[in-house]
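testing teh design pipeline on a random one, pls ignore if ur not involved
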């Protein structure tokens, strides 16, 4: 099962909007399909589109080969975007990721610019504006001693098969409304939870330690928090993890209507007055 990543780096406080009736009009299948102008005659338009994006990723990597470090592990490049009503890629919504910080920094902007140049798609099975389909691609490479990147097979469960609609987990009492409202309500509930359980560690206060702790965790298919990690000042880590460990069991997030594991990164700020 694929893990969805969500970064809540700007927590929003505000009033929670609760609705008495959930929006059940959404249809997940058939999934949204993007038809590239060069793929119209292809037997597998998804594979054709994936090949086009692979070439763009390879070109971005080729431009940094001479300056990049020797990479021993498998390199993973992730690309995600969605489109507007005209089938054009929404530039502001393009996200890219590499599991190597140096490569991520060097190819990020150039890869995004390259993706924005892709002409408008013909969109089949387009979904409602309430829940926009995302299109995600994973590419894997090995790097040889001469800094040549070699593409290797993508795991079967990560091969692009069309658009995906992700719904984030819900706190008790929440219902699904639309993507923006769902995320805003979730963020607000997280803020309220942090405020309720926040305690400044005495030792950190005594020695004047302050800063931000980034807590990474997953909410699994059963709605339970798992695999928590934290990064920040050492004397603040335990308290930040304690706050997140007190989160309740959620209604699990879904991917195309099926329960899925979703990963979160949440910052908790410790500041002395």
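output:
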């Amino acid at each position: 099962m694929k893990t969805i990543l969500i970064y809540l780096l700007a927590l929003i406080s505000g009033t929670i909007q609760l609705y008495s009736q959930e929006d059940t009009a959404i249809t997940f299948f058939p999934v949204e399909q993007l038809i590239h102008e060069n793929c119209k005659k292809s037997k597998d338009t998804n594979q054709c589109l994936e090949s086009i994006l692979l070439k763009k990723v390879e070109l971005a990597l080729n431009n940094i080969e001479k300056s990049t470090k020797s990479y021993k592990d498998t390199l993973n490049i992730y690309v995600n975007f969605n489109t507007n009503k005209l089938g054009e890629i929404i530039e502001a919504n393009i996200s890219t990721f590499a599991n190597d910080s140096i490569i991520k920094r060097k190819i990020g902007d150039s890869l995004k610019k390259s993706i924005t140049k892709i002409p408008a798609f013909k969109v089949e099975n387009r979904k409602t504006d309430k829940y926009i389909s995302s299109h995600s691609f994973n590419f894997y490479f090995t790097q040889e001693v001469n800094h040549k990147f070699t593409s290797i097979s993508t795991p079967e469960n990560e091969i692009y098969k069309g658009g995906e609609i992700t719904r984030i987990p819900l706190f008790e009492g929440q219902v699904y409304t639309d993507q923006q409202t769902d995320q805003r309500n979730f963020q607000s509930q997280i803020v309220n939870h942090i405020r309720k359980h926040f305690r400044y560690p005495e030792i950190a206060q005594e020695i004047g330690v302050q800063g931000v702790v980034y807590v990474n965790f997953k909410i699994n298919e059963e709605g339970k928090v798992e695999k928590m990690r934290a990064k920040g000042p050492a004397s603040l880590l335990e308290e930040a993890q304690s706050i997140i460990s007190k989160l309740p069991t959620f209604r699990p997030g879904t991917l195309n209507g099926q329960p899925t594991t979703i990963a979160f990164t949440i910052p908790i700020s410790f500041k002395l007055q």
